[in-house]
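To illustrate this point, we now present one chain and its tokenised fold:
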Amino acid sequence: MALTKVEKRNRIKRRVRGKISGSAVLPRLSVFKSNKEIYAQLVDDKEGKTLVSASSRDKGVDAKGTKTEISTAVGKAIAEKAKAAGIENIVFDRNGFVYHGRVKALADGAREAGLKF
């Protein structure tokens, strides 16, 4: 029996999360996208805490344009918040999504704003 789209993503997610982990010094940038919105958060897996978060629903994010343009704005917003928290280097977690389109746009926006990964 074929796997559903969500089951495939969860398999990929488990495989990737077995290899990467975030810490206070090198947090994990986790991305989640729904059909309408996109969310990003920096996670310290050792403490089990979210250090910084940003989403397309935040008031500070310019929510005009295409979904890809909004994703770039979310990437820039998370990078600015991370810099304010003293974080420059991160590990990227695409959360089982294909590194293409909105996920790639978020990563590129974060890189433009100064995050290194």
Q: What stands out?
A: The longest strand covers residues 38-44.
